[in-house]
Amino acid sequence: MLLRLLVVLAPAYILSQFLRNSVAVLAPNLSQDLGIGSAGLGTLTGAFFLSFAFMQLPVGMALDRFGPRRVMASLLAVVGAGCVVFAFADSAPVLLLGRILMGMGCAPLLMGAMVVFARAFAPERFASLTAMHLAIGNTGILLATSPLAMMVDLIDWRGTFFGAGLLAGLFAVLMVVTLPEQIRGKPLSSGRSEGITQSLMGVGRVIADRRLWPLMPMLFTGYGSVAAMTALWGGPYLADIYGLNPIDRGNVLLLMAVGSILGPICYAPLDRRFNTRKWVVVPGCALVMGIFGLLAIWGRPPFWLLPILLFLISAGNGYFSVSMAHARSLYPDHALGRGMTVSNMLVMGGVGLLQPMSGLVAGLFTDGATGAMGEPSYRAVFAFLGVSLGLSLAFYLKAPDCPPYKKSPSDKIKGL
C-alpha cells in the first residue's frame, strides 16, 4: 500500500519542487527572449511562493472537507494551465500569471500527501513517511539544475514548460484513478460538512493554541534559513569569494541538493528509534546553526572544507521533517488539513521573508560605490541566518515533547 501511494503522490511533489526552483536556470533565456531584468526575475520567483502561501488556508479547509484526491487532482490541473501559460508567454505579465497559477496549483502537493500519511498510518510512522516523501520529492531540485539546462538546450524553455504542463495533467488523471477515498476503512477526509465560518474558526483555534507557539519560530526559520543559502546566496558566495565559474558553482550546489535528499532519509527513523521528536530536532538545528556561525566567523574557510560544510547545512536540515511531525502530533484528525497547512504557511513565510531580510542585512555591508558584495556582506548574512535559528531554538526548547509512542488525548489541541 505504501509503495502504491508513493507512486501516486511523489511524482506530483517532484514536479512542484522542479517548478519552484526552475527560474534560476531559466534566467538567461528569459532575459534574452523577453527582456526580463533582475527585478523581474525576483518577482517571478516570489510570485510562486506568495500564491502558494495565499492558497494554504483554503487548501487546508478543502483537504479536511473533500479529501486529498479531489483537491490535489483539481489543483494539478491548475499547475498544468500555469505551465502552458508560461510556455506561450510573450511578455512579463503573462509569465507572472503562469507562475502565480503554478504556485496556486502546487499548494496541496506536499500537505495533501502528509494528510494521507497522517490518516492512513499509525501516528508514530508520520515522521519517517514524511521524510521519505521529502527525500523523493527533493529530486525535483536536482532536476531543476543541469537536467533542466539540458532540456532547455534541446527543446527550448517553452517546450520544456509545455511538457511540464502535460505531465501535470497526466499526474492529475493518475491521482483521480488510483488514489482512494479511504484506506483500510479509514476515510482520507474528515467526514465533517463544515461551513466556511466553522472552518475558519477551526483554523483560528489551531493558531491560538499556546502549545503550538514555541514550534512556530522553528517552522518559520528551520527550512527558510537553508533555502536562503541554496536558492539565493550559495551561488553568489561561491562566485564572489572563491571566484568559481558557473560549472564549478553548479557542482557545489548540486552537492547541497544531494544533501537535501539524504538528510531526510537519515533523520527518518530517529524519532521512533529514540522515542522523541523534540530531541531529534534540537541537535539538528544546533548543527546547522553552528555551521552558519562558523561561516560568519571564518568568512572564507579553505575551499576543500567548504563543500563539506555546505553539504552538512543541507543534509542537517533533514530535521525539518521531524519538526513537522512534532506539530502534526498536536492536531486532531478532523483538522489535520488545516493544521498542516498552518504549519506550511509558516514554512513558506520563512522562505519568502528570510531571503529579502538577509538581502537587507547584506546591503548594510556592501561597497557603497560599486554595490559589490565582499566577505563582510556574506559574513553578515551567515550571522543573520545563524542568529535566526538560535532564537527559534530558544523558543523551541520551551515546547512540550510529543514522543511517537507516548501520546495521550491531552496532547491534542482542544476545542476543534
From TrEMBL:
Residues 5-403 form the Major facilitator superfamily (MFS) profile domain. InterPro entries: MFS, MFS_dom, MFS_Efflux_Transporters, MFS_trans_sf. The chain crosses the membrane at residues 34-59, 71-89, 101-122, 134-155, 161-179, 212-232, 252-270, 279-298, 304-325, 346-365, 377-397. It holds the Pfam family MFS_1. It is a multi-pass membrane protein. GO terms for molecular function: transmembrane transporter activity. It is found in: Cell membrane. GO terms for cellular component: plasma membrane. The keyword Transit peptide does not apply. Keywords: Cell membrane, Membrane, Transmembrane, Transmembrane helix. It comes from the Bacteria. Its main location: membrane. Gene3D superfamilies: MFS general substrate transporter like domains. PANTHER family: CHLORAMPHENICOL EFFLUX PUMP RV0191, PURINE EFFLUX PUMP PBUE. This is MFS transporter. It comes from Iodidimonas gelatinilytica.
